Amino acid sequence: MATSVAAHVPAAAAARRSGIWSWITTTDHKRIGILYGVTAFMFFLLGGLEALIIRAQLASPNNTLVDADTYNQLFTMHGTTMIFLAVMPLSAAFFNYIIPLQIGARDVAFPRLNAFSYWVFLFGGLFINASFLFGAAPDGGWFGYANLTSKAYSPGLNIDFWVLGLQILGIASLAAGFNFVVTIINMRAPGMKLMRMPVFTWMALVTQFIVITAFPVITIALVFLMFDRFFGTNFYNVTAGGDLLLWQHLFWLFGHPEVYILILPTMGMVSEVLPTFSRKPLFGYAVVVYSGVLIAIMGWGVWSHHMFATGLGPIADSVFGATTMLIAIPTGVKIFNWIATMWGGRIQLKAPMLFAIGFIAMFIIGGLSGVMHSSPPSDLQQTDTYFVVAHIHYVLVGGAIMGIFAAIYYWWPKVFGRMLHDGMGKAHWGFMLLGMNLSFFPMHFIGLLGMPRRIYRYDTALGLDTLNLVASIGAFILGASFLIFIFNVFWTRKRGQLAGKNPWNAATLEWAISSPPPVYNFSVLPTVSSRLPLWTEHGVSEIPDVPPEPVHVPGGTIWPILTAAGILAIAGGAIMHTLWIVLAGALFMVFSIYRWAFEPFEV
Amino acid sequence: MGVTTFAALGLSACSGSFPQSTLDPASGFSSDLADLYRTIFWWAMFVFVVVEALLVYAVIRYRARPGREGEPRHVHGHTALEIAWTLAPAVILVFIAVPTIQTIFKVDGTPPDGALEIEVIGHQWWWEFKYPELGIVTANELHLPVGRPVALTMTSADVIHSFWLPRLGGKRDVIQGRTNRLALTPDSVGEYMGQCAEYCGSSHANMRARAFVETQADFEAWVQQQLTSPPPVDSLDGLVQRGAQVFTSIREPANHSCIVCHRIEGLSYGAIGPNLTHVGSRTTIAGGTLPNTAEGLRRWLRNPPGEKPGEMLGRTMPKIDLSEEEIEALVAYLQSLR
Fold first, then answer.
1. Measuring CA to CA, which residue among A554, A561, A564 is closest to residue A601?
2. Could you tell me which of B182, B169, B213 has the C-alpha nearest to residue B112?
3. What residues 502-541 of chain A have any CB closer than 8 A to a CB of chain B?
4. Are residues A76 and A211 in the same domain?
5. Do A153 and B158 touch (CB under 8 A)?
6. Looking at chain A, which terminus has fewer C-beta neighbours within 10 angstroms, N or C?
7. Whether residues A259 and A328 fall in one domain
8. Which of B8, B160, B181 comes nearest A145 by C-beta?
9. What's the pTM?
10. Which pLDDT value is given to residue B69?
11. B54 contact residues in A (CB cutoff 8 A)
12. How large is the average pLDDT for residues A238-267?
């Protein structure tokens, strides 16, 4: 594979290459999407397992199932995994697979950079989890507050894994972010104006703008921390003049936009599912798009609501309280438009639709508890308690995960050509809804009744034994619901009903081609003349099943994965404090980039 | 779910069984926060009921079923509706924002004149309390006179902690290099539990605090007791004297000697661990996690990191090679320091 193959795919011979090597070297956005999805789902299961151990520990007071340090590693890795290794890359799986299809493109703008993003993400995830093998998983919380993360208070390798791992993952996110902004802006089919784009693609575009602006902020915070830990600088050393709130401002300046990085894509997914199964166009398309843009912009002005207890003073508290409340408006507008989309429709309660409806119902609860701690005085009793744990899980499990599963059930037939079993999907939905409410709803009370977060044990004197037990039982039901999904996947492989081009009779472009799509996606690039091309007469030009002339598709390449391996080596050398490995990794990375840059890719 | 929320509100109002309830206030500060929470809660409840009802109604009313087939009318939007459901939440938010901002300025930590000054210092993993005007230094347990304003001035000796006694007020982070303030006036006599609310390392769960709100007379008695110097070692006898000898002995390694870290008035000057001058008068030890009984002290002295995980060299109490005889003597001595 030293020189890449420029694959002229003849009309009739559009067969995919197969074998592991073809996956390692792939630049096909669809395969990369599947890689993202499978990898992220594995990390999702890992993060879920961590959550179940946490809930098993908290099922009874003063439990000794795990010790304090193990518990602290578990909740740190649960948060880090779910945010960076599960929800974000699950969204990325859909960006990769669906966006080029929705905008009528044959691939993303930079297919090799796309492969690079995936491999860096995989290596970053493996790197940060490799810490478990050394008994030194990160233990500073997913928010890693200074100065607990400094060498003086965390002398082990734990935080080193975290600070290096997150920087690796940041590279993957940034590369993908630029790739998708360029793809969406430049690669749209003729006639696909911005305001004709599907809302999922729109929300992806907005999300990627947040990624490329927010990730540099956390990168700076992490570089400061890395310098403190590795080279003895004093950014977060108070005794040498550092300031601990510097970390918090930088972290939340990233961290709150990050919340919208997690939720906006799922809002886009739901905005695709609802019209399809209501048999009606999205109500207020422009308003839904603009409110998403507005949420992204306003998301930059609210970060200090994570810091009301730090003593910012009444003026700052008032301002950040007010800006946070304002975000409820565009969010509420989206919810009203979704309900209005269903209003007057012919709602087909198939599994994807149930997940989408579940998303709205649960997100409302998470949104309202969010308003409760947007009020700084009210937040002084809620922050760092289980009330906030309840809130984030309504937003991220009831919201993001529900929305992602709506997308999984919705687009599965497009990706794999077979329908997931609807009955099993409904059972999955039912148990997930039951489990999450049983687990997370009591946490509101647990918090209001005074139990802080991140404690590995609690006294029976708090009076919270029963509520905690109920929350733990709910967590296991929630966990079990995903077993139904996994069974469904295996069942569907052999027995799933064949999907055909457009099993849901949906309106957007990805449903105009076969399932799964051919390697070149569109036999001829379509011309679009409607926001709902498949629901409009002559909404899209004819797309023949067989390409009338040979189609160029990108060949495979080994250099993105090798560049990513170079980055992994740099981090590995840094963990071992071995300079020559760092230098060798850097050299290898530069060499791989050089070969990548001069590799003939397409003829 | 709404029903269970009502139930919880009801049950927390007549608390006692929830010693850290935020909805069972015992100071003006925590009452203000609980009142504001209730205001927001009812608005949220209203929105919850309306929006979820609309959602459920839409799903049931417009579900596809026999008699409702064929394509529905394609509606693309409605400008007046969009404006309405933009303005409606904005109006509700005004009803939340106004009391919010009023409360922010009301509870901003400015103490009234004549407030009792207390310094709070967070340590991994215990609380140090100083009464500078009274010359009292103690740990993990506050004593407050009922009805008198208290001004807390707070910082941290190491990582960030958060001081929180839910029934007496909202939490406030204690941050090295910064000074934060809280002001509150406890309004009823009683014992109030709390604990560190900001994740601060291994034993974050074991960093408890409690406050004893007392009548003026009881408080003054406590102050008098705290100001009494402990009797000189020479005047002690038996096991207690032996305990004092163990306490002052230089052990191997030297930083395993009690006096390196702990202060007892007239005996030692250690400043790393809690001041033990009147440790016998406290109800708990070990960050408030063990009862201050002979058995509790024994458990603690045998293996401190076993009780409070997370060893920080030079900052937390290590496992010290003490014989059972030495432990019994120390227990007797520490219990005598009332």
1. A554
2. B182
3. 535
4. yes
5. yes
6. C
7. yes
8. B160
9. 0.95
10. 75
11. 339
12. 96
Contact criterion met (CB < 8 Å) for A347 and B193: no
One-letter amino acid at A511 equals W
- Chains A and B form CB pairs within 8 A to the count of 285
Partner-chain contact A309 B19, CB within 8 Å: no
Range of the domain at A595: 557-603
C-alpha A349/C-alpha B62 separation (Å) is 10
Which domains are delineated in chain B?
2-66+76-106 (1.10.287.90), 116-227 (2.60.40.420), 233-336 (2.60.40.420)
CATH number, position A283: 1.20.210.10
CB–CB contact A361 B74 (8 Å): no
How many domains does chain A contain in total?
2
Q: How much is the average pLDDT of A156-171?
A: 97
Distance (Å, whole) CA A450 – CA B197: 10
Rounded to a whole number, what is the distance in Å from the CA of B320 to chain A's nearest CA?
Answer: 21
Q: Does B21 touch chain A (CB under 8 A)?
A: yes
Question: How far, in Å, CA of B238 to CA of B243, rounded?
Answer: 9
What's the pLDDT score for residue A602?
57
What's the rounded Cα separation, in Å, for the pair A602 and B15? 73
Q: Does A123 touch chain B (CB under 8 A)?
A: no
A574 and A525 within one domain: no
> Residue B237 phi/psi, 5° resolution?
-145, 170
Closest CB to A384 among B68, B81, B162 = B162
| C-beta of residue A277 within 8 angstroms of C-beta of residue A356 | yes
pLDDT of amino acid A554:
78
In this structure, are residues A527 and A540 in contact, taking their beta carbons and an 8 Å threshold? yes
Q: Are residues A153 and A264 in the same domain?
A: yes
A8 within some domain: no
In a domain, A588, yes or no: yes
Same domain, A476 and A582: no
Residue B10 predicted with pLDDT over 50: no
d(CA A335, CA A313): 34
Question: pLDDT digit string (tens) for A182-192?
Answer: 999 999 999 99
How far B246 CA lies from chain A's nearest CA (Å)? Answer: 31
Specify whether the backbone of B210 is left (phi greater than 0), alpha (psi in -120 to 50) or beta.
beta
Considering the domain architecture, whether residues A574 and A532 belong to the same structural domain is answered as no
| Cα B110 to Cα B103: distance, rounded to the nearest angstrom | 13
Q: Residues of A321-340 as b/e, b for ≥16 C-beta within 10 angstroms? A: bbbbbbbbbbbbbbbbbbbb
Residue A388 lies in a domain: yes
CA distance A96 to chain B (A): 29
Give tens-digit pLDDT for A79-133: 999 999 999 999 999 999 999 999 999 999 999 999 999 999 999 999 999 999 9
Q: Is B316 on the interface with A (CB under 8 A)?
A: no
What pLDDT band is residue B1 in, cutting at 50, 70 and 90?
A: very low
ipTM for the complex? Answer: 0.94
B169: closest CA of chain A, how far (Å): 8
Do A575 and A472 lie in one domain? The reply is no
Q: Which of A238, A333, A346 is nearest residue B177 as measured by Cβ atoms?
A: A238
| Statement: residue B301 has pLDDT above 50 | yes
> Are residues A379 and A288 part of one domain?
yes
pLDDT given for residue B246 in this prediction: 96
Q: What is the mean pLDDT of residues A527-550?
A: 92
Nearest-by-CA chain A residue for B34: A378
Instruction: Tell me which residue of A197, A186, A343, A349 sits closest to A268, measured CA to CA.
Output: A197
pLDDT band at A16 (very low <50, low <70, confident <90, very high): low
A52 conformational bin, left if phi > 0, alpha if psi -120 to 50, beta if neither: alpha
CA distances from B241 to A289, B155, B245 (A): 78, 37, 6
User: Is the Cβ pair B18, A450 closer than 8 Å?
Assistant: yes
Indicate whether A9 belongs to any domain. Answer: no
| Contact yes or no for A532/A281 (Cβ under 8 A) | yes
Q: Do B21 and A449 touch (CB under 8 A)?
A: yes
